TrEMBL record, chains A, B, C:
ATP binds at R120, S166. It comes from the Bacteria. Substrate binds at M44, G193. Belongs to the Thz kinase family. This is Hydroxyethylthiazole kinase. It comes from Bacillus norwichensis. The gene is thiM. Pfam families: HK (PF02110).
Length: 268, 268, 268
C-alpha cells in the first residue's frame, strides 16, 4: 500500500487539482495554505449563490462545519449534492458534532443527504455519527470508551465510506480493513486547525485517486509526519507559533521519498 | 497581588478551560492560537442557532465586535444572556465603538443588556462607553483627553465591572483601585489583533478565577510581556511577520515564573 | 517616475492613512497585516449596516470578492457608492471573476455602478472584464491568449481606470502608457492571498496620492520585491510557511531606498 500512496505525492504536484472547500472562518487561511503547500489549488466559495456551480470546476469538495451558519450550510448542501451527482469525491469534517443540537443535526443531515467518500473527525465527533453519546467539549476531543479503530470501523461500515478518527494514533478504515497511523506529535493539539488542515489535505489526495482509503491515509499521515518534523526542528525558545509555520514548511517540501521514510502504518 | 495572579498561569495549564469566543473574522485565528498557547481551549460558534447552547459548555465567553453583523450580534446577545444567567463570566471588547452609529449602538446594547465582568478596549473606544465623544479612527486608538487610568476608573464605576484600557501604559480598574501595567512594546501596534488577543487571553483567565481584576491584569500583562520578549528576540532583518510568530511562541512558553519576572504593575 | 513613487513609501509611514477593506474571509488577516506592515491602518467593516459610514472615515476603499456573499456585496456597493461621491479612491480586486455566473455578475455590477480608480486581478479575471471568455480555474490564473500588457491596456481604456494584471510580469496601464513590473518570485503563487495583499497595498498608496498609476505601480512592485527578498532569505529546510512570514517582515522594513534598489520597470 505504501508504494502506491507515495506515488500520490508526486502525482499531486504534477496535476495541481482544484479543491473546493466550504469550511470554517477560523482555520480557512491555514487550510488554503496547506492545500497550496502540498501542490493543489484551493477555492473557498461558500455562498449558495455559487457553491453548486463552483464545485463543478473542482476535483474534490471538502465540507467542514467548524463555524456553521444557515447560509454556509445551504452552500454545503448545494455543493455536496452537485458533487455526488458528478462523481466528485466529498470529504466531510464534522467539527464539534455533539456539542450543540444544531451542529449535530446538520452533521447528520450531511451524512444522510450527501454521500461523503471520506469522513474525518476526532473520537467524540465520529462517535456521535454512530449514535455514541460522548460529550464533545467544544471542538476538541474528549475521552470516549471505544477505541479509535472501533469507531472508524463502525462509521465506515455504517455509512459505506472511508472513516478517519484522529487521535494519538489515527485510525483509518473502510469497514473491512482498519489501519493505525502512528505518526504525530502532541504539539499538533496546541495549534488551531490541525484537524481541519488534515481534512483539507485528504481532500487534495481524494482529488487524484479513486482509492479513497489511500487518499485518507496519505492526508492524515502527512499531517502527522509534518508535525513530527516541525516539533523536532524547534529550538528551546521556539513554541507553538514557530511550530505552526514549520508545519507548512515541511508540507511544502514533502515528497514521495520523505513520506515513505516517515510513515508508520500497521493494520489494526 | 502578583503572587496570586502568577498562580493562575499554572492553574490554566492544568485546568484547560473551554473559552467561547464570538469574535471578528480578521483576527479569530490568532485569538484561537493564543488561547491554545496559554493552555485553554477555544470554541468559536457565532450563529444564533447554537451560540446560547455552546456557551453553557464553556467556562467564559468573549464577545468582540470587530466585524459586527446582525447575525453574529444576535449570537452575541443569545450567548451573553445565557452566560449571565449561568454565572459564566463575559469579557467584552468594543472594537471600533464610536466609529459608526451601528457599532456604537450595538456596543451600548451589549453594555446595557448583558453584564460583562470585564471590558477591554483602547482609550477612544472605552471613552465612548462613558459618553466621551472622542473620534475613533477606524479600529485604532486616537488621542483622548482623559488618562487611561481615569477612563478605566469611570467605566468600571459606571458599569460595575473591571475595565481595561490598553495603551502605552495599560490601566486596569475595579472602580476603586486602578493599576497601571507598564509592559508592552510599540511593535504590538504594528500587528493586527493584539488587542483582540489580549481580550481572548483575559477570557482564559476569567474562566479560572472569581477575581476578575486578577484575570484582567493577568491577560493584559501577558500580552505586554510577550510583546517585549518577541521584540527583543528579533534580528535586524526580521520584522512584524516574525514578531507575530514569536508573540505566540512566548505565550506558549509563559509560566508563573516568567510572568513574575517580567510584569511591572503600579497602583495609579 | 521611480523617484516620485519612492517618496510615497516615506509619506505612507508618516501619514498612516486609514484604508477600508471589504474583502474575503480567507486572506483578510494577511491583508490587515501587510497594511500595518507598510505603515497604514486597516478597517474591515463589511456589513451594509455600517460600511457606507465607515468608508467616510477612510482615505481609500479596497473591494475584494474572494468569498462573495449577498450581505457583503451590499456592503461593497454601499461603501463603493459613498466612496465615489466623496472622492475616496476605490481599488477593486475581481477575485475569481469568470468562475461562476454569480461572481461574474457581481464583478460587472461593481465595474458599472461603482467607478474604481484601480482594478487588479490575474490575466483570466481581468480578461473577463473586457468580454474575454477565458476559463477561470477557481481563483487562480489560467493561460489567456492576450498578453498581460494588452489586457491591462484594454481594461484601462474601457473603464477609464488604472488596470493591473498580475503574472510573471505584472502589467500596469492607464490606457495610454503601459508598464511592466519585472519583480516577483514563483513562491508568491504557493501562498494564499498574495494577490489580495497586493490589492490591499495598492489601496494603501491610493490613499496618499492622486496619481493612481503611481499607487498601482508602488503596491504591485512592493509585493514582487518583498517576494524576491523573502525567497532569497530561505534556508533549504524552510518552505512556504516561513516565506509567508518573511514576506511581511520585508514589507515592514521597506523604505524608499530599498524599493528604488529593488524595482525593475520598463514601458511596454
Amino acid at each position: 500500500m505504501e508504494k502506491e500512496i507515495a506515488e500520490l505525492f508526486t502525482k499531486l504536484r504534477y496535476k495541481k487539482p482544484l479543491v473546493h472547500q466550504i469550511t470554517n472562518f477560523v482555520t480557512m487561511n491555514d487550510c488554503a495554505n496547506v492545500t497550496l503547500a502540498i501542490g493543489a489549488s484551493p477555492v473557498m466559495a461558500s455562498s449558495p449563490c455559487e457553491a453548486g456551480e463552483m464545485v463543478m470546476l473542482s476535483e474534490a469538495l471538502v465540507i467542514n462545519i467548524g463555524t456553521l451558519q444557515p447560509e454556509s450550510f445551504d452552500g454545503m448542501m448545494a455543493a455536496g449534492k452537485t458533487a455526488n451527482s458528478k462523481g466528485i469525491p466529498v470529504v466531510f469534517d464534522p467539527v464539534g458534532a455533539g456539542a450543540t443540537a444544531y451542529r449535530t443535526d446538520c452533521a447528520m443531515k450531511i451524512m444522510k443527504e450527501i454521500t461523503p467518500a471520506i469522513v474525518r473527525g476526532n473520537a467524540s465527533e465520529m462517535n456521535w455519527l454512530i449514535g455514541g453519546r460522548s460529550i464533545t467539549k467544544g471542538v476538541d476531543a474528549v475521552h470516549v470508551a471505544l477505541s479509535n479503530a472501533d469507531i472508524a470501523r463502525t462509521v465506515a461500515a455504517t455509512y459505506n465510506c472511508i472513516a478517519v478518527v484522529s487521535g494519538n494514533e489515527d485510525a483509518v478504515s473502510n469497514g473491512k480493513h482498519t489501519y493505525l497511523i502512528q505518526n504525530g506529535h502532541p504539539m499538533l493539539t496546541r495549534v488551531t486547525g490541525t484537524g481541519c488542515m488534515s481534512s483539507a489535505l485528504i481532500g487534495c489526495f481524494a482529488a487524484l485517486s479513486m482509492n479513497h482509503l489511500h487518499s485518507a491515509v496519505a492526508g492524515i499521515s502527512l499531517m502527522g509526519i509534518a508535525g513530527e518534523l516541525a516539533a523536532a526542528s524547534l529550538s528551546d525558545e521556539e513554541g507553538t507559533g514557530t511550530f505552526r509555520v514549520r508545519l507548512v514548511d515541511f508540507i511544502s517540501h514533502m515528497s514521495a521519498e520523505m513520506w515513505l521514510e516517515g510513515v508508520r502504518i500497521i493494520e489494526a
